UniProtKB/TrEMBL annotation:
The chain crosses the membrane at residues 20-45, 57-78, 98-121, 128-148, 186-207, 219-239, 322-346, 358-379, 403-431. This is Cytochrome ubiquinol oxidase subunit I. It is found in: Cell inner membrane; Cell membrane. It comes from the Bacteria.
Length: 466
């Protein structure tokens, strides 16, 4: 049934599908791990039981998301060998060690201390348990460091040479790891993860506040989440601006697609707010635009000239419509985050923060929007890089394995069925846990069932400690 399809297109769809599922979980666990460390630190500092209750509420959700993130990440690694073997052969000497460092220095760290964080509070002591929680948080940030380094090198390759068989050979590991776009991408992604977590925590808290349940615990969660939005969302706007300037310097074609600039503008480029990119006519139909504002934003000069896609061979154009709209989705959600943070600050000043149902409803609606923004940002980044896998050096069409379209299509169908079944069930269960009261005992559901697979069944005191 896939004979008429293009194997390259199917391989790209398959990787996009699996990476989209995967990025959802790290985008949440990176921020949630740090949130758990903050909660436990507040509990040790203040001795208030409420912080420990909230910590226990979220640590179970973290464990489930961490597990699903690991499973979905492993699948992507296999695709380098199945669908992208040429890319693996050519770029393997660079990206292979970087991904290995991620496993050795970051994943092992967070996985090694995860069990202590989940089950060791009354077994190893409060100090060591807090240390384990911090190590898990550092491990998640370490994973982001290495994965973003890999991706950034593919976007702005540096520190390499190409040998006689076309492989990218490392020459300077410092230049490879800290390539020109890496600091901006790392900062942008980590802040996005913190904002995504804040939106989820705020939505769960708003859910309980709107129903008049667990007021103290939900109120604390809501307050912490809104403070995060109030402070970090404007910082993310600044980080995004710096990232955009860096992209303009190193990947100007991507910025042309993001801005919808088919034509060059020698006397200042307009900012196109909305429109319908038309690659056939090389125009943006029904454009709503502000004259010269794009030049002001990108070059800080109203009259600064900006090149358009008319200066680039058409075969090197990325899919403009996808990049154009995904960028606007990301920016719109980001501005809404800033607005939500400002509204919460206004409500605090008015003394209506915990009773403002409009604010709580917006926070509830915004719960999944962090994930949407992260996905839109990655679509902008990855689709905007096309037609390259290693920007400027290796075309995507030259990176794919010599594999037939039916084989790729069959595995794609299998991924779709399995992912929606497994991760759908996991997500459903996570949403059920979020719907519980933050001080509910998670053990209640399994009180009469064994909680160990070996050894004696723990008594009541042991179960309470567990």
């Amino acid at each position: 049934m896939f004979e008429s399809f293009d194997a390259l297109l199917l391989a790209r769809i398959q990787f996009a599908f699996t990476v989209s599922f995967h990025i959802i979980f790290p985008a949440f666990t990176i921020g949630l791990a740090s949130y758990l460390a903050v909660l436990e630190g507040l509990w040790l500092w203040t001795r208030r039981q409420v912080y420990l209750d909230i910590f226990n509420f979220w640590k179970t959700i973290f464990a489930l998301c961490f597990g699903m993130g690991v499973v979905s990440g492993i699948v992507m690694s296999y695709q380098f060998g199945t669908n992208w073997s040429v890319f693996s052969d050519r770029a393997g000497p660079v990206i292979g060690p970087l991904m290995g460092y991620e496993v050795l220095s970051a994943f092992f760290l967070e996985a090694g201390f995860l069990g202590i964080m989940l089950f060791g509070l009354n077994r190893v002591g409060k100090g060591l348990h807090f240390f384990a929680t911090i190590m898990v948080a550092i491990g998640t940030l370490g994973s982001a460091f290495w994965i973003l380094s890999v991706n950034s090198w593919m976007q702005t390759p540096a520190g390499f040479s190409i040998n006689e068989v076309g492989q990218f050979v490392p020459e300077n590991w410092w230049a490879i790891v800290f390539n020109p776009s890496f600091p901006y991408r790392l900062l942008h992604m980590v802040l996005a993860a913190y904002l995504t977590t804040a939106l989820v925590v705020g939505a769960v808290a708003a859910w309980h506040l709107l129903r008049g349940r667990a007021q103290e615990r939900a109120g604390i969660m809501f307050s912490m989440a809104m403070w995060m939005l109030t402070i970090v969302a404007p910082l993310q706007v600044l980080a995004g601006d710096l990232h955009g300037l860096n992209t303009l310097e190193h990947q100007p074609v991507k910025v042309m697609a993001m801005e919808g600039h088919y034509e060059s503008h020698p006397d200042g480029a307009p900012l196109i707010l909305f429109g319908l990119p038309n690659s056939e006519t090389q125009t943006v139909d029904y454009a709503i635009q502000i004259p010269k504002l794009s030049s002001l934003i990108l070059l800080h000069d109203l009259n600064a000239p900006l090149d358009g896609l008319d200066t680039i061979p058409e075969e090197l154009h990325p899919p403009v419509a996808i990049v154009f709209w995904s960028f606007r989705i990301m920016v719109t959600i980001g501005m809404t985050m800033v607005a939500l943070g400002l509204w919460s600050l206004w409500a605090r000043r008015r003394g209506t923060f915990y009773t403002n149902r409009g604010l709580q409803r917006l926070a509830l609606w915004m719960g999944p929007m962090g994930f949407v923004a992260v996905l839109a940002g990655w679509v902008t980044t990855e689709v905007g890089r096309q037609p390259y896998t290693v920007y400027g050096h290796l075309l995507t069409a030259d990176s794919v394995s010599p594999i037939a379209a039916p084989a790729v299509g069959a595995s794609l169908l299998a991924f779709i069925v399995i992912y929606f079944t497994i991760f759908g069930a996991g997500t459903f269960y996570i949403l059920r846990l979020m719907g519980r009261l933050p001080d509910d005992d998670i053990e209640d559901d399994i009180e009469d069932n064994p909680i160990r697979t070996a050894g004696i069944t723990p008594g009541p005191a042991q179960k309470e400690a567990f």
